[in-house]
Specification:
The chain contains 13 helices and 8 strands. By secondary structure, the protein is of the alpha/beta class. It has 2 domains: 116 residues; 110 residues, Rossmann fold.
Length: 242
Amino acid sequence: MKVEVFIPCFIDQLFVQTAFNTIRLLEKAGCKVSYNPQQTCCGQPAFNAGFWDEAKKVGSKFLNDFSEESYIVSPSASCTGMVKNYYSDLFTNTVVHNKCRNVQNHIHELSDFLVNIAKKDYFGAELEGRAVYHDSCSGLRECKIKDEPRQLLSKVHGLDLVEMKDTDTCCGFGGTFAVKFEAISSAMAQQKTDNALAMDAEYIISTDASCLLHLQAYIDKNNLPLKTMHIADVLTSGWGNV
């Protein structure tokens, strides 16, 4: 199965190991993975800020960087949701209308692809400790992902996965929301981490590095006994360095 991997710009800049672990997972699932080094951004930051013309330029580049025939897999429900849902607002009834629809039909978030397309949910990962899973807004509402990450995490040796209160409530990041409404954003992060600590969790796991970036910043600032982990990093834990 041929797969093109889309590594979002913030993962490329801040979470390089998550990008490599995504490729390792896909290869272990039996996929032939290709990466286009010319890829950049899906256009979501500009789109969410209201700069649709600029978002359309970035989105046009995205459509040129990926093919219509192969599966496109990304370790970000947020970016996947942008392409899958909001490219319709940018490219409907344009010259790239048909290509846009084909790309939208072929792009998948990582856990969705592994469980529903590759039909793989066990990767021999090992991680000792108790964890909660945070349903990102994009994963749950835009990509319709809920059971898939939990199915994958349930097969990790040594991991005690428990459900926290309000697991589907926003973490408070929301892109520019965290900048424009800092106090509200921080309060939402506090609520999320309090709920994790109430379950004696050591880890908060999610499909979205942007949520985890926000939560980890709050954790570090307040010296909380928690660690955030992307699901790709969890599913490759215990593999050793390759």
